Amino acid sequence: MKLSGSAHYSLLLWSAIVGVSNAASDHNSHLNDDTPCIARSPTSGLYFDLNAISLSPPEMKNGKKIQKDARDESWHARGHDYPANFTINICAPVIEDIKDVVGVESSHWKNVSAYYEQAGKIYSIGEQASEPFFRGRKLVLNYTNGSPCPGDYNTASSKNSSARTKSTIMSFLCDRDAPANTATPSFVGTMDSCTYFFEVRSSAACGGIAVDPNAGGLGPGGVFGVIMLIAVAAYLIGGCAYQRTVMHQRGWRQCPNFSLWAGMFDFIKDMFVIIFSSLGRCLRIKRSPSSSGYVRADGEGRGGFIGAIGGRGVGHGGRRDVDAENRLIDQLDEEWDD
Ligand SMILES: *[C@@H]1O[C@H](CO)[C@@H](O)[C@H](O)[C@H]1NC(C)=O
Ligand SMILES: *[C@@H]1O[C@H](CO)[C@@H](O)[C@H](O)[C@H]1NC(C)=O
Ligand SMILES: *[C@@H]1O[C@H](CO)[C@@H](O)[C@H](O)[C@H]1NC(C)=O
Ligand SMILES: *[C@@H]1O[C@H](CO)[C@@H](O)[C@H](O)[C@H]1NC(C)=O
């Protein structure tokens, strides 16, 4: 019965630990795959947060940037042998204010996430999208609905809605040496000037466990609490096993350092008794002159309210209280000595 008591206790502790760790994992589970610009690798389970390299227009105040080092242009990729350079933003429209995009309605100019400029004309190679996903082990993001593809341009002008439009596929590569919050897109190629392929190197493509900066898993306090709980549980369980198997103790004595804890408990109990009885005496002294009749009956009859709490029959008030305290203090001294 005693054993089951302590077993019950350690079970409680374990459930507390499990509860804490469940809370920690619940914390992360709200970062589901629907969160914009975040993808979860199905193989490693890591989260990839591309928001770190998603640029937003610098906040302006009186024509000046609030943050001096804020980027005011999107990421660039050189075209090399392709007769244009590319401007790209990740998960968001480009920062640049572009107009007269070939074959794109003016209402969608603000949605263009990647473009190039050729012969003074701006061609969109995709509209904003923020659902990166995994194709095997590759983190991929695609943009669609750009300018019409070259061969289809004439049909598009004759309002055939089935005309193909330029699109972009980006493959992200982890680069741990890259500075934080930067992306280096490289143009890989295009077969028919309709779909464009890029590789994007960034430290944001390296994956992490807790991605939400506002609620990054357990705080330091939580981690400390978990460690403390585990330590206490290990102490109790290991101590019980040792006392039981090696020292052959039974009942409460198999709890580790039982005598120490029992002593401590007694000490605290006695302290309470002392404090309460002193308090009671103070109150009694204060009250007795004013309403002596009531207090005397109470104080001498049953040893007072305090005596009842203390659990020690004090009998006839003041004098006995002092004796009891003296005895207690002597007892405490003895316990303190050993
Ligand atoms: C692309 O950019 C590089 C340098 O940034 C420049 O030398 C080159 O002329 C540009 N190419 C085109 C087609 O604009
Ligand atoms: C285009 O951008 C506007 C805001 O600028 C947004 O409300 C709209 O949903 C975007 N459209 C698409 C297709 O992304
Ligand atoms: C482009 O991305 C969407 C999700 O954003 C996906 O459903 C679609 O299959 C992708 N297309 C290609 C060609 O990868
Ligand atoms: C528009 O596209 C459909 C097929 O998607 C085709 O049958 C039709 O001929 C096209 N119309 C024009 C004007 O090109």
TrEMBL record:
<dbReference type="Pfam" id="PF02157">
    <property type="entry name" value="Man-6-P_recep"/>
</dbReference>
<dbReference type="GO" id="GO:0000139">
    <property type="term" value="C:Golgi membrane"/>
</dbReference>
<dbReference type="InterPro" id="IPR044865">
    <property type="entry name" value="MRH_dom"/>
</dbReference>
<keyword id="KW-1015">Disulfide bond</keyword>
<dbReference type="GO" id="GO:0007034">
    <property type="term" value="P:vacuolar transport"/>
</dbReference>
<dbReference type="InterPro" id="IPR009011">
    <property type="entry name" value="Man6P_isomerase_rcpt-bd_dom_sf"/>
</dbReference>
<keyword id="KW-0472">Membrane</keyword>
<feature type="transmembrane region" description="Helical">
    <location>
        <begin position="218"/>
        <end position="237"/>
    </location>
</feature>
<dbReference type="GO" id="GO:0010008">
    <property type="term" value="C:endosome membrane"/>
</dbReference>
<keyword id="KW-0812">Transmembrane</keyword>
<feature type="signal peptide">
    <location>
        <begin position="1"/>
        <end position="23"/>
    </location>
</feature>
<feature type="domain" description="MRH">
    <location>
        <begin position="35"/>
        <end position="208"/>
    </location>
</feature>
<dbReference type="GO" id="GO:0005770">
    <property type="term" value="C:late endosome"/>
</dbReference>
<dbReference type="InterPro" id="IPR028927">
    <property type="entry name" value="Man-6-P_rcpt"/>
</dbReference>
<keyword id="KW-0325">Glycoprotein</keyword>
<protein>
    <recommendedName>
        <fullName>MRH domain-containing protein</fullName>
    </recommendedName>
</protein>
<keyword id="KW-1133">Transmembrane helix</keyword>
<keyword id="KW-0732">Signal</keyword>
<keyword id="KW-0813">Transport</keyword>
<feature type="transmembrane region" description="Helical">
    <location>
        <begin position="258"/>
        <end position="279"/>
    </location>
</feature>
